[in-house]
Design a protein that fits this description.
single chain; 135 residues; alpha+beta; 23% strand
């Protein structure tokens, strides 16, 4: 099984040119922190790989591992989503999450499963904005 989180590097860093807002930057950082924690303990969940792909405006933004990129239509133009989570099961089935609340719930749920399996706290400090999404 594999997981790939795709986020906008500009928004993750709070780049004012992207106008991500404090909320978006905090939630993206929560997502990345969870994904990095999952990567540290991936063998507990029997994961083959965990990728965090930070995309920038000045690059093609191809996926790191899992060949899935989601898009939406804005003003009659196709726009690639800068935030998505793709999971691939052992049978090759892929699930794609684009809603930030769903992405954070899946990642935080995996961190919780690791804590249960290890019988110790490996939780991530989630921002107030992230906690609001999870409640």
């Amino acid at each position: 099984m594999k997981i790939e989180l795709r986020v906008c590097e500009h928004c993750l860093e709070g780049d004012r040119a992207h106008q991500p807002g404090e909320r978006k930057t905090a939630v993206l950082n929560d997502m990345v922190a969870c994904a990095e924690r999952i990567d540290t303990y991936k063998e507990i969940l029997d994961l083959e790989a965990v990728h965090v792909r930070k995309v920038r405006d000045d690059e093609a933004g191809r996926p790191a591992e899992l060949p899935v990129v989601t898009a939406t239509i804005q003003n009659d133009q196709v726009v690639l989503n800068d935030t998505q989570l793709v999971t691939e099961g052992q049978d090759g089935t892929m699930l794609v999450y684009v809603n930030p609340a769903d992405i954070l719930a899946v990642l935080a749920g995996n961190v919780d499963e690791i804590s249960k399996a290890l019988n110790e706290d490996v939780s991530v400090d989630i921002s107030a904005h992230g906690a609001e999404l999870l409640s």
